[in-house]
Structures are given as C-alpha cells and as structure tokens.
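Lab notebook, design round three. We kept the backbone fixed and only want residue identities now. Task for the bench partner: fill in a sequence for the structure below.
Input structure tokens:
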C-alpha cells in the first residue's frame, strides 16, 4: 500500500499495484466461503484465471491516470492534483472491490451454505452467496479507498500548516500516516458486516424454504 501510493511513473505504478492486487487476491481466495466444490479442479482453474485477469485489469486501471498524464504532458497544478491526489483513492477502492467480486464469482454461480440458528445446514443459496460477496467487496473497497484518501488529506494539512518543516521528513511521515490509517481501518472494515451474516426468509429461494419453517438464516461471509 505504501509503495503503491508514492509511485510517480506509470510502469512502476503498474508493477507495484500488480503486486498489491496479487496479495489481496490470494488473501481473498484463501478466506472465501469455500462452499462451491463441484468439479473442484476446474473450479480452482476458473478462480485462478479470474484472479489473474482481475489483477492485470486492476493494475492497468491504477496506472492509467499516470499514463494519461505523461502521454498528453498534463503538467498544470490542477491536473497534478486530480491525477496524483484525488484519483488514486477511488480507483484503488473500486479495483479492490472488483477483484473480490471476480475471484469469488463462483459463489454467485453455485451459491453458499445457509444454516439455521442451531448451525444445521438448510441448503445452498445463490442469493446468500451474492450477499456475502457484495458485502465483502464493499468492505474491501472502503478499507483501501480510505487508506489512500485520508493520508493525502492529512499530508496536505500538514504541509499547509508547515507541521513538518524538514522536506526530507515528509517521506517517513507519509509512511507512518498510511500505516496508522491502515491499522485503524482494518477493524472498521472487518466490522462493517458480521462474519456470520444473516439473511431473511423472504430473500431465499423457494426450494430452500420448502424444507423448513425457520424465519432467519445465517451464512459465513468470508473475509
């Protein structure tokens, strides 16, 4: 996160964002729901291909503003502000959410297990899978979007007020601010939605409802 946030060249930005999204994609693969098991080998292949495509696409999107700025020699202060300060945060948030949705898309297609209050598996629901993936994608987007955006605001305020007087200290201070925001946002992101998600009876498929009279169901959201 820190290295990706300080890149000023498109090729370097692409490389470090590729590394960043590779790590987060691997984390998503390991910490998904894990219910889909049909044709397990082909499923793993599909997830790896989707993950590689999502990583490459996200790295390209992240580096695109710098490519655009360098290609058209946009050097005025407004474009510098937009490309270097304002765009990276929403782009990283969106691409982080995108990689989650792509890698865990088998949960859309095959569904995930839903349980009653006693932990008994009632069935496999695509709607619960969709809800779990979307909640995780949103929390991941908020985590990294905020981690890129808030340090820029804080550093801007520090520079305006000359809180950091030595220009050489700006780099270490920026790294410390980013680490602090990331550390603070991790529990916020994980607590946005409960790990054991809840879904109402009216939101489930009829074939699941026909086998039980329960009104509330639960599922493992993943991380």
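Proposed sequence:
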């Amino acid at each position: 996160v820190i290295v990706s946030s300080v890149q000023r060249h498109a090729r370097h930005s692409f490389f470090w964002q590729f590394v960043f999204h590779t790590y987060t994609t691997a984390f998503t693969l390991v910490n998904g729901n894990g219910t889909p098991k049909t044709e397990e080998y082909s499923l793993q292949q599909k997830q790896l291909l989707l993950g590689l495509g999502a990583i490459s696409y996200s790295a390209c999107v992240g580096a695109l503003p710098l490519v655009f700025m360098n290609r058209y020699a946009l050097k005025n202060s407004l474009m510098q502000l937009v490309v270097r300060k304002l765009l990276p945060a929403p782009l990283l948030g969106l691409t982080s959410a995108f990689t989650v949705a792509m890698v865990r898309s088998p949960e859309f297609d095959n569904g995930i297990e839903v349980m009653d209050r006693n932990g008994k598996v009632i069935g496999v629901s695509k709607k619960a899978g969709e809800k779990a993936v979307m909640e995780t994608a949103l929390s991941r987007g908020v985590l990294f979007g905020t981690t890129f955006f808030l340090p820029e605001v804080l550093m801007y305020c520090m520079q305006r007020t000359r809180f950091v007087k030595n220009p050489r200290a700006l780099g270490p201070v920026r790294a410390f601010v980013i680490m602090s925001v990331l550390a603070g946002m991790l529990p916020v992101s994980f607590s946005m939605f409960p790990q054991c998600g809840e879904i109402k009876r009216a939101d489930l498929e009829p074939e699941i409802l026909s086998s039980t009279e329960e009104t509330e169901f639960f599922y493992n959201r993943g991380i």
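Keep this in mind before ordering anything: The two ends are 18 Å apart (CA to CA).
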